[in-house]
């Protein structure tokens, strides 16, 4: 297993597998009890329409770690696993 320091991920570019530039790594969010890495917090690209994406109160993108396909010079995000508001609305409707 290759180990990567969190500090090395700061400002690494996030791109979907379909070529959409999401932004750059700003921070990481962990579960306080388990230590599990939950989301990548990203500074969005200035051209990205954030209206469909899950963002925090500061407008930063919240990218689930489960959507990460690869980490290298850039981080590739699986667009099918990317949490977007339209998908979350559909889930709420189904469970309601």
What does this 3D model show about the protein?
The chain has 96 residues and is α+β, with helices and mostly antiparallel strands. It has one domain (6-95): SH3 type barrels (Roll), CATH 2.30.30. Helix content is 16%, strand content 35%. The protein has a six-stranded mixed sheet with strand order 4-3-2-1-6-5, with no helix packed on it. A hairpin with a 6-residue loop joins strand 2 (21-30) and strand 3. The chain is globular. Mean pLDDT is 85; it is low at 88-96. It comes from Thermococcus gorgonarius. This is Photosystem reaction center subunit H. Residues 2-81 form the PRC-barrel domain. It holds the Pfam family PRC.
Question: Which descriptors apply to this entry?
Answer:
6-stranded mixed sheet; 6 strands; 2 helices; disordered C terminus; SH3 type barrels; alpha+beta; 96 residues; PRC_barrel-like_sf; 16% helix; Photosystem reaction center subunit H
CATH class: Mainly Beta
* Beta-strand residue fraction: 35-45%
Shape: globular
Helix content: 10-25%
